[in-house]
Write a structure and sequence with these properties.
Elements (H helix, E strand, L loop, with lengths): L4 E10 L2 E10 L2 E7 L2 E8 L4 H11 L9 E8 L4 E7 L1 H14 L7 H10 L14 H13 L2 H6 L3 E6 L5 E6 L2 H15 L7 E4 L5 H10 L3 E4 L5 H10 L2 E7 L2 E6 L15
Parallel strand pairs: 3-6, 9-10, 10-11
Antiparallel strand pairs: 1-2, 3-4, 5-6, 7-8, 7-9, 11-12
């Protein structure tokens, strides 16, 4: 597989002079996800952990329910990018055929726009009770995620998604796109048998609608990110029963819905 970062020559203005040198830059290539010979989507992504990406994307899109529903997977590198070919078992194959028929229609029919808007803001899947999390555990998880951001530290141009397990261990995946990073993480968890419903998903980005939807598809009861959420992301998380933590930094964090999963001793709590 090609490297997710490459050295590029550049000129840098430093101390009043132009200096020649190199910078390690994140690689970004087209990645086509192909199910049973038909291209489902083409996305710009980092060329790393593409098996996790394809499985995770298929899970969060609702195409498959478990990795076992993929009979075979093949990575093909081309001059233009990567093609990930997945062959599905009977159940997801039939469901995917029905979905393609539903999405196919005449352009400009009016209802097409309504259906696409509905798809974009579809409710997030309800999540289970999960396990509570202490502020200290959250802080340690965010710190561990930062320490494992190899591509991010090298290029300053990659997002990370991490799973904080009950034992404090952290699984991390990176990509130039925040949605891709989360799909890679979801795929990695599913392929390794880790239950997202027993921990928390951490993100280095803002909280968007898509991240809430994908985290909910994975079954994560807690989603925490270092930046702020959008209003619709908060609403979807609230409706799904998900604890949404944002602006999570070294000096604290903010909880926007379902704070009951954050364990804080009464003597430490003070509401201003």
């Amino acid at each position: 597989m090609s490297q997710p970062a490459k050295p590029l020559h550049r000129l840098a203005w430093r101390d009043g002079t132009m200096q020649a040198g190199t910078r390690i830059v994140a690689d970004e290539v087209p990645v086509a996800i192909v199910h049973d010979g038909a291209t489902y989507a083409v996305m710009m992504a980092s060329p790393a952990d593409l098996e996790d990406f394809a499985i995770g994307f298929s899970l969060t899109e609702g195409i498959i329910e478990t990795p076992d529903e993929v009979d075979d997977l093949e990575l093909v590198e081309t001059d233009l990018g990567w093609v990930v070919r997945l062959w599905l078992s009977q159940r997801p194959r039939a469901a995917l055929t029905t979905r393609r028929r539903r999405l196919t229609g005449p352009a400009g029919c009016g209802l097409c726009g309504v259906e696409s808007l509905s798809e974009a803001v579809k409710p997030a899947r309800p999540v289970g009770p999960g396990r509570p999390l202490t502020p200290l555990a959250l802080a340690q998880g965010l710190d561990a995620m930062s320490q494992q951001q190899g591509l991010g530290h090298l290029t300053r141009a990659a997002h990370a998604a991490a799973f904080l397990a009950p034992d404090g261990s952290v699984t991390v995946r990176e990509d130039v796109g925040r949605h891709n990073a989360l799909d890679k993480l979801v795929g990695a968890l599913a392929r390794s048998g880790l239950d997202a419903g027993q921990g928390a998903i951490l993100m280095t980005s803002r909280v968007s609608v898509e991240l809430v939807q994908k985290a909910a598809m994975a079954g994560a009861p807690i989603l925490a990110a270092i930046s702020a959420p959008s209003t619709l992301a908060v609403k979807l998380a609230d409706d799904a029963g998900m604890t949404l933590v944002a602006v999570a930094r070294s000096d604290g964090f903010e909880v926007f819905c379902h704070p009951d999963r954050i364990l804080i001793n009464e003597e430490q709590t003070r509401v201003a």
